[in-house]
Design a protein that fits this description.
By secondary structure, the protein is of the alpha/beta class. The chain folds into 2 domains: 142 residues, 3-Layer(aba) Sandwich (Rossmann fold), CATH 3.40.50.1000; 73 residues, Putative phosphatase, domain 2 (DNA polymerase, domain 1, Orthogonal Bundle), CATH 1.10.150. 41% of the residues lie in helices and 13% in strands. It has a 6-stranded parallel β-sheet, sandwiched between helices. It starts with 9 loop residues before the first strand and ends in an 8-residue tail after the last helix.
Length: 239
């Protein structure tokens, strides 16, 4: 993509692995759904470490990965019903959105400061209702202007749809947004939308950050990076 990014005037933040360490709750909801459907077989449950590697593409992808893993072990029959599992997953999430996980240390203070500078929105592959429940449980709602969740397959990052919608609603050009996240999907969404990107090192993402992305090593560095981006004028190709 070519063109110019503008100084940042709004910040979009991923949720799981960026604002909150929610992997324990996601693992709990997944195991609840599988246990309710009697699909765990010889397994007691999936541990958090395994689930952490599957987080990032939304609950449908998470469930599909769990089923594929169990089928490879011979633990799941062809009668697994992803729709029923999703209903169980959603119910467990809404019952305890952040009962086991936590907000990353320093994140609330960073959001409090940033919210005084510019609009903050969440852009996540989690469905909107689940995302809002987690955000409310984390007590982060007061700092956020809006939440954009992937309620349809075509909304999912790395596609640009959610960022484009956020930019439109905020009255900003996509190039005036900074997408902050822990995954290649976040970086891809930023690139596809023509937005700035910032990679956080503490999340669940795999792979390497793009060379034209800002790099954030701890939540207390977020405000300094946003300040730089608010003053920056960079080409989409990082030139």
């Amino acid at each position: 993509m070519t063109g110019s990014k503008l100084p940042v005037k709004a910040v979009a933040l991923d949720l799981d692995g960026t604002l909150v360490d929610s992997a324990p709750d996601i693992a709990h909801a997944l195991n609840h759904a599988l246990r309710e459907a009697r699909l765990l077989g010889g397994m007691d449950s999936f541990d958090v470490a395994a689930v952490r590697g599957w987080v990032g593409d939304g609950p449908d992808a998470l469930i599909a990965r769990a089923i594929a893993f169990m089928r490879a072990r011979g633990d799941v029959t062809a009668h697994a019903d992803p729709a029923a599992l999703r209903r169980g997953f959603d119910a467990a999430t809404l019952a305890a959105p952040l009962g086991l996980g936590t907000v990353y240390a320093g994140m609330e203070a960073a959001l409090r400061e940033l919210a005084a500078w510019c609009p903050l929105v969440v852009v996540t592959n989690k469905p909107t209702a689940l995302a809002r429940a987690v955000i409310a449980a984390a007590n982060l709602s007061p700092y956020l202007t809006a939440v954009y969740g992937a309620d349809r397959r075509e909304d999912r990052k790395p596609g640009p749809a959610l960022l484009a919608r956020a930019a439109h609603d905020l009255g900003r050009a996509p190039g005036e947004l900074l997408m902050v996240g822990d995954s290649i999907a976040d970086m891809g969404a930023a690139r596809a939308a023509g937005a700035h990107a910032a990679w956080v090192s503490w999340g669940y993402g795999h792979g390497e950050p793009p060379t034209d992305a800002y790099f954030i090593d701890a939540p207390d560095q977020l405000t300094a990076v946003v300040r730089r981006a608010m003053q920056a004028r960079k080409s989409v190709n990082g030139q």
